[in-house]
């Protein structure tokens, strides 16, 4: 009888211990399942807000010209997207102060700048491998339709956090045309030429980007794509032009995720050709004149 009682008591203890271990294992399985679900539920649609800062002094060697313009210009943009398409566009802040309002000191003979950066409106379709870009240039609208650009990205394991997203670094080389700007101050021969008299050959610069694998869509600002995550920051020419994500949201206006349709339709090569013609026309016409000063953009001696 005593042996039976001990056996029965031991059996109950073993059973209780087994049940506790079973509950622990089940709890761990549930926790692992939850973690897997969270990992799989990555953000695949939403909106990312960006700020772009351009160094306006980078190509202005003349101290007098630098005193007329602020060192940096900041603009806002946003990228709305789902798994298949994205729309990158400018965000116009009507209440934001004009950074050039007091350029030149505000004196009677001073030089004032008052202009807006051209608006951006780029729609990317991954399935069709196409991009549709709406551009405004001197009050003329263009619709650029072309295949998706392919970039040779060099991936790195270097990381940093941007807008609460863990990002990895990638680099590529891009070629940008060199523009010449000549400024005549007071209508005389006091000229500032940002490119001096050197040939206007295209300049190849390193493009550094940071992308977030936690948002596994192959989109980014200004039409850049082809990475295993959305691009959160772009740094062109070592700080000359930097665009950084400042906010990420899962909410976005789905009805506005459509391709631009207004403007004269052309491909990228045709658009670049049109831009060169416009620049040459401006150069022959004396450039942009403001009071006693003139800004010439393009070529010329």
Features:
301 residues; alpha+beta; disordered C terminus; 12-stranded mixed β-sheet; globular; 2 domains; 4-stranded antiparallel β-sheet
List the helices and strands and how they pair.
Blueprint (H helix, E strand, L loop, with lengths): L1 H39 L5 E10 L7 H4 L5 E10 L3 E7 L28 E6 L4 E8 L2 E8 L6 E9 L2 E12 L4 E4 L6 E3 L9 E10 L17 E7 L4 E9 L14 E3 L1 H17 L3 E3 L2 E5 L4
Parallel strand pairs: 6-14
Antiparallel strand pairs: 1-2, 1-13, 2-3, 3-4, 4-5, 5-6, 7-8, 8-11, 9-10, 9-16, 11-12, 12-13, 15-16
Description:
Helices cover 20% and strands 38% of the residues. It has 301 residues and is α+β, with helices and mostly antiparallel strands. The longest helix has 39 residues. The strands form two sheets. Strands 7-8-11-12-13-1-2-3-4-5-6-14 form a twelve-stranded mixed sheet. The protein has two domains: 38 residues; 256 residues, no CATH class. A hairpin with a 2-residue loop joins β5 and β6. The chain contains three helices and 16 strands. It is globular, with a radius of gyration of 28 Å.
- SSE arrangement, N to C: HEHEEEEEEEEEEEEEHEE
Describe the strand arrangement of the main beta sheet, using strand numbers. 7-8-11-12-13-1-2-3-4-5-6-14
The level of helicity is: 10-25%
Task: Report the average pLDDT across residues.
Answer: 77
Question: Spans with pLDDT under 50 lasting ≥5 residues?
Answer: 33-40, 106-110, 183-189, 192-199, 289-301
Whole-angstrom Rg:
28 Å
Counted up, domains total 2
* Principal-axis shape: globular
Strand content: 35-45%
Distance from first to last alpha carbon = 115 Å
Q: Describe the main β-sheet briefly.
A: 12 strands, mixed
